[in-house]
Specification:
It is built from 4 helices and 11 strands, in the order E-E-E-E-E-H-E-H-H-E-H-E-E-E-E. By secondary structure, it is mainly β. The chain is globular, with a radius of gyration of 16 Å. The two termini are about 30 Å apart. Keywords: Aminopeptidase, Hydrolase, Metal-binding, Protease. GO terms for molecular function: aminopeptidase activity. It comes from Oceanobacillus jeddahense. This is Aminopeptidase.
């Protein structure tokens, strides 16, 4: 037996699902997003209590709006993933114009559906149990890349203690 794991291939990410209502802040994308045949570029998303409350794209504003308005869950996060700047795909410094490949070239958030695999025995949980755990549901999951060479990521443990996850774009563990 063993531990089931469902990565994207190729994969360089460590990912989890944030609590639907506990994301606050502003994310600035560092690479274009290709969505529905459109290029969305030079854009940001602002989150308040998990919901995207403000957004702007210098290129592809209408496509970004359509993405966020797909359904109720498309205005919340389903994933956050960390990718080292030293990963082979990040080092390629290439835009593949395909979200499934581009997501592995940098850290990213997933707008929309959360994967049950981020919870222990999540695949066997009911929809109600997943919602109670703070998982988002949506018809889509679209990944938006972010990160810089000097990026620092600090996580917060349940009791409020900080833990350094990344420094200068590299994992610290």
């Amino acid at each position: 037996m063993g531990i089931s794991f469902f990565p994207n291939i190729p994969t360089e990410e460590i990912f989890s699902a944030p609590h639907k209502y506990k994301v606050n802040g502003k994310l600035v994308a560092t690479k274009p997003l290709i969505y529905g045949g459109s290029i969305i570029d030079d854009f940001y998303l602002t989150f308040k209590d998990g919901r995207i409350t403000d957004y702007y794209a210098a290129t592809g504003q209408e496509a970004l709006q359509n993405l966020i308005e797909t359904d109720e869950g498309a205005s919340y996060l389903g994933e956050i993933a960390l990718v080292s700047n030293n990963s082979p795909l990040a080092q390629a410094d290439t835009l593949f114009y395909n979200t499934l490949f581009d997501e592995n070239t940098a850290c990213h958030i997933g707008i929309g559906n959360a994967s049950p695999s981020t919870l222990q025995n999540g695949s066997s949980l009911s929809e109600e149990a997943l919602l109670e755990a703070g998982h988002n549901t949506s018809l889509l999951l679209v990944n938006v890349t972010f990160g810089t060479e000097d990026m620092k990521v600090v996580g917060m443990k349940e009791k409020g203690n900080d833990v350094l996850l990344m420094e200068d774009g590299e994992f610290s563990f």
